[in-house]
Design a protein that fits this description.
Layout: H1 3-31, H2 38-45, E1 47-51, H3 62-68, H4 70-73, E2 78-83, E3 100-107, H5 120-123, E4 124-132, E5 136-137, H6 142-155, H7 159-168, H8 171-178, E6 185-195, E7 200-209, E8 220-228, E9 238-243, E10 252-255, E11 258-265, E12 267-268, E13 288-296, E14 302-318, E15 327-346, H9 349-352, E16 363-369, E17 371-372, E18 385-387, H10 390-396, E19 401-407, E20 412-417, E21 424-430, E22 444-445, E23 451-452, H11 453-461, H12 465-468, E24 473-485, E25 492-505, E26 513-521, E27 545-564, E28 567-580, E29 586-591, H13 593-597, H14 615-626, H15 633-663, H16 674-689
Parallel strand pairs: 1-2, 1-9, 17-21, 25-27
Antiparallel strand pairs: 3-4, 3-26, 4-29, 5-29, 6-7, 7-8, 8-12, 9-11, 10-11, 13-14, 14-15, 15-16, 18-19, 19-20, 20-21, 22-24, 23-24, 24-25, 25-26, 27-28, 28-29
Helix pairs in contact: 6-8, 8-16
Amino acid sequence: MTKQRQRYLVALTCFLVVLIFLYLELRHHSLGRHMPSYVKLEKADSSMKLQFPASFSKDISKRDLIKNSAAFKVTGFRYDRIIQPGKPTAPLRKSTNLWAISMLRIFGFGVTIGLNLDRCNEALVSNSTVLVSPKKNLNTPLTNIVARMIREIDRGRDPYMREFQPYLDPQIRLQVEYGVGDKHWFNMAGSLVYLKEYGLHMMVSRLAYSPDGLRNNPKFSFAYTQLFDVDWNEVNDMALIVPTNTNDGDRFFTVEGKNYTIAHYPSILPVPFYHDYNDPGMKYLGPEDARVILVQNEAGHEEPLIVYNLHHQKQILLDDDEDDYILKQMAFFRSMWVSWPWQFQRGKYAIEDTKNELFDNRIYNRAKELQIKNTQREKTQKNWTPFVSEGARSDSGYDKHLFFVYRWSHLQVLKCDITSDTGKCGFTYTVQENLRVTSKIGPLRGGTPMVSLNSVIGARFHHLLPEMIPEGREIWVGFARAHLWRCGCGNDFYRPNLVVLVKDTANGENSTDLYRLSYISSFTPLGVDAIPWDPLRPLDICKGTNAVIPNGISQWDAHSVRESAGNWAVDDTLSLALSVSDCTVDVVHVQGVLNTLLNMRDQLLTLPPAGNPNRDVLRERVKKGVSMKPSNDNIVCAMEESTKFCAFYGENVENRKKMAEIYEEEYETVPEDENLELYRFAVEQLVSEQ
């Protein structure tokens, strides 16, 4: 080969390389600017694992169903692996010495002290301990979440992501390129349930977006959903066949008269909410403080339901002193809502209170506002604590109603119809008659959904229920959280409080339900320490907000129950989701809560074993306890103890800070973030070009 020919081939090769490079570059820009991670992610996620519920009909060929159903093709994914439903979580045992001991100081209702704080020790019925596992962080790297959003936008098959594209694109592509997604996106407040049909934990958390990078000033929030296996590892690229309420759309199909759809995880739930792209000042939009709970629908399926507060608009009458016609205007409210992740509706009229052709034909998760009957819609409603009643489920055959603790102090319980179109709620119980809805709630509020103690025991030891729980009694347990202000550490201090709600149904023609906050603990740290609100100031733990907030109980298993020396000996474990300083999603496992509650010192909650010689006497004592007049004594004592906890915690933090300052004088220096500066410059360039 001559040298001239060699030069020619080299030149031709270089020319072809340049052409290929230009083609790829143009193609890259056609998919979206500044997205080097897209190709990798798309390649990895083009196929999905598929799982059917355990109760799905065995007579139907699953592979034939997939092959012949258009619903599986329209998603654009390949379901190349079909897996069987997982097995229930194995009992979690204390296997290492890393489990921490956490104190439970529990105050009861059996002694009336007239709100005298000097007598709180008389109301203290248990000073016990529980074991808590090291917390496991469940946060997904935020850059990965943002990259998935870009993939869905570019695939064009997710109308919900397309709806928000004007707010996000192309900024999120730049965030991925410069690695600053975690400066503008925040993932917190994960609430968990266990899906027995699939052997998986489902978590719904808040994914907040703040263009200016301030965590406490988000523009809007999404409901982000993930799945975890029995070992608490995230399950990516999983599709579940789930029961649904409709066959109106390409992704739905019907088998033997029942409707199903395909739910992909992880994903952002298409929860409808109001927004206006032309209003640059809008913020705090989208579902906030979401809590997930399991309900049983009319078809007998157990499905998740999320409870959250949401900014929305409604038409109200405008009084302009004119009598010849009625004027209406739009007003904004922050109300309580429920939404079904596996049920759907078209449009979002219920949220915007007006027809909008941009959204009327789009499919969203079914959503319903909860309104208290015979009262005006309040400007702000939040922090309702949800629970499901086994008794009400038995009466209706399914969960027609969802119950809420509206307030703990001066206890009020709401009963909401979640099957009707109106979503009306009424107070099924209130301690103080004529108490206004607008009255102050007090420091104790929110927290986890309540879990039925009857269900926990009945799941494995149904035959023991009559031996343990008096007839006509339902018991719910959860973790509320008190919000204390300037109690010794920061402006706002939050920690979990164990709470036990009891309902006794009086038999007879005029049977009534009597509710009581029977027990409440002071702050319990659960072996979890807070982190500073500002991560760049690691010693300022008591600046601003110091928060450990409980969000959900995924599982609570009683592994064994036996009689021991006239008392119950129980081996139990619950899995609790919590959030630290509004920037983490964690889970801890707590052992011994049920054992503590079955052996309370005042013996007013449950019955002792048949072998206890005082069983009949204690049964009568429980009956008398039902008629005791409720009071706020135990709440006041628990809040007083919580304040002491906060003050002691603050003193320790200050001592640690003084010691650290001796050795680290420059602890307050804030490192420069060059990538963040480059990102901001790139965004400014984009704005100037528009």
